[in-house]
Amino acid sequence: MVGVTVTTEQAYDTVDMMLNMGPQHPATHGVFRMVLTVDGERVVDVTPHIGYLHRGSEKLAENESYGQVVTLFDRLDYVSNLNNELIFCRAAERLMGIEPPERGQYIRVILAELNRLASHLLFIGTYAIDLGAMTPIMYGFRERERIQNMFESVTGARMMHNFIRIGGVKEDVPPDFVPRVRALLDDVERGVQECDRLLTFNEVFLARTRGVGVIDLPTALSCGLTGPSLRASGLAYDVRKDYPYEVYPYLSYRVPVGENGDCWDRYYMRVLECYESLSMIRQCLDQMEEGPVMAQMRRIARPPKGEVYVHGENPRGDIGVFLVSDGTDKPYRVKVRPPSFCNLVSLRPMMRDAYIADAVAILGSLDIVLGEVDR
Amino acid sequence: MTEQQPAEEQAAPRPAAHRGPPIEVAEEVLDSRGEHTAGALRLALRDMTIESGGRDDVPWVRIARENLTRAVESCVRSPNLRMDMLHCLFAVDYEERIELNYVLFSLGNAHKALLKVDVPPDEARVASLTGVWEAAGWYERETHDLFGVEFDGNPDMSPLILYEGFEGYPGLRSFPLHDYEEW
User: Fold this and answer.
1) How many domains does chain B have?
2) Which domain range does residue A123 map to?
3) What is the pTM of this model?
């Protein structure tokens, strides 16, 4: 009232507010920070900030021998370690012209698919927590724990396995492996069904995820989105199917494809993939025959000069490795194309015009692992 | 090694290992899929190719850096290629030159290809591709952080994976590995 004149125009002028989320926010699945620009309840823009977990893995790899680099790959995507080991070993093998023996390849695929199951079960559990449902994580984690125990009996470690080596796997599986995996698969299948029944068509869950965080196919491709998140947008692109590697061409399975590209589709793709993985492992167990598990090669891997780009299907998407060898026992350059890094690029188009309350649902549906985003 | 090992080996012979002197350079051979892509690439970049090669299903083409934008646009537009995804972008430091690698994918036409651009380390500068693919923005920021390559036309070049005020470019070969200070 003391000399303040407010014109009508100014009175309705609104200012966008900056809202910081993270890096110590439980729903960011690690140390990830995003700055939301909000207009009331609507998100106008989002700026993700990454790099809190940058350990310089690519630089470190240049100073380790090829065998040691496998251990660095374990620590990239720390919930699907065996898939990461597999991709690096495949890159080195391509350069050296080695083909692992068939039993070795079957063991690799069984372990990689088990790891995919464990990773997806963790996703189902944590995604439910993100949306405020406490129960599914109990089921998801219980089954994941069984898979981890199986890994421990095979590789000796629960997470950082260093089991897949250049030329095959470290050693043969224990003698009772096949019957135990079969029993495990039955348990895990029940666990997946339990989560599926509990969550997928739940009214509240549908209301929170249907039509939220929609991304159309051209935008998804432009952002480099891959894996289940891309398939949710309606493109059946799966490296295992389109560019088959290891023993995947001998297995029959379907590639689930979504329609709407929303959070629910992204979630459901992963549930369906769990069933496919279960069937893949069963087929591997049926087809696997006795034999060597490691190719004959020199003790120290020393690939000839050259470079190679290899990519494969990780639980989170398309992982790529570019390897340059200068003929010594250490790689000249290792570049990882982490799927989570590229999936995070699409966070911006997904979040535009969403509600603040949906921000966590959208971020959770991408299933990021910060270990590989920052490397 | 147990005693049963030799008997087992007789039953299923191991793949023959390479004997003789070690192979110096890995041979680069394209398979049928790679040849198909290489043919389409030759057509699309016929006036820009400096050098080409490739292994398995990923052919590569080296182009001059002035031609980058033009080359990428013809890769995207060419009906045989239709490269719809920038799968990866990274630099390799060869000390006398920095090699930028653009991994282009076409999910519709099932093509994979590498575009290589050499830049001198003292004037590492190249055009940005943010107008073509949204994914290019983050890759370019990362490459700038680690290798100091400037991307003209990228609207946001703030540090992505390093913290504000970090000095030096840790991706370069000249950057020491164990010579850091506590802070």
Assistant:
1) 1
2) 56-350+357-374
3) 0.86
